[in-house]
Amino acid sequence: MNAYRDRPPGVPAWGRCGVMGVVDVSPGSFSDGGPRLDADRAVAHGLELVGQGADIVDVGAESARPGAVRIARDEELLRVLPVVRALAEDGVLVSVDTMRAEVAEAAVDAGARMINDVSGGQADPGMAKVVARSGVPFVLLHRRVRSVGTAEPDGSGGAVSEAVAEAEQQMAALVAAGVDPSQLIIDPGLGIATRTRADDWALLAGLDAWRRLGRPLLIAASRKRFLGTLLADPTTGDPRPPRARDAATAAVSAIAAAQGAWAVRVHEVRATADAVRVEAAIRTARASGADADR
Asked: Is residue 224 annotated as a catalytic residue, yes or no?
């Protein structure tokens, strides 16, 4: 089996790129926070995403946007746990989006079957122990940490190879702390680990380079700024608003699926769920044609 498509433990085999739908209960979300802070509404939204084709629902209470102020631990627990518990009880495969080990552990106890940490395990030194002890899959988001005077990435292939090497170091640190390598899923860090829009496009164009890590890839491009910049108003130059980037997100999802991504993380599920199924059908037809020619 191609390791690029290997599934982590405890996750069903979909036979295609998976779709992770976002339930964001943070009022500071750049994209859709605020309206779903009420737990019942958040749960209803999660179930709606499943109905639209989501395979996983990712529940988080902290915004990852630049400059966002972190919320208190107790507030994060209050926002996240009721939603995780209710969705898990409904049979949904739930991921918890958190940088806190204590929140991750409580969410797993409440039924979450995956941990998605946008700090890559670096924000809380206790995260690795929680991941190792729980045995659930862990999304390691690649973080680019640069010292003063380090050259900025130039959007070239060098930036991609450097990012892969950095992620490899993050993986090694987690494994040294007791995490089983099979638990790890890699998020290249689009819009987070990059410094320029060119870097985002370079990472997407260079997904093959991540094969050397031998771990599944989660691509999280949904509604991000590099898409807004690409689709800027030709008259004013203003970036397209986040909610108007969903068609472009679905296009990225199909392309990522074709390059072997294990899953994509999106806010608007239906279009991406359709896109990855189309990609899978084409891939199946291509394989059938190849078999017939033998």
From this structure: yes
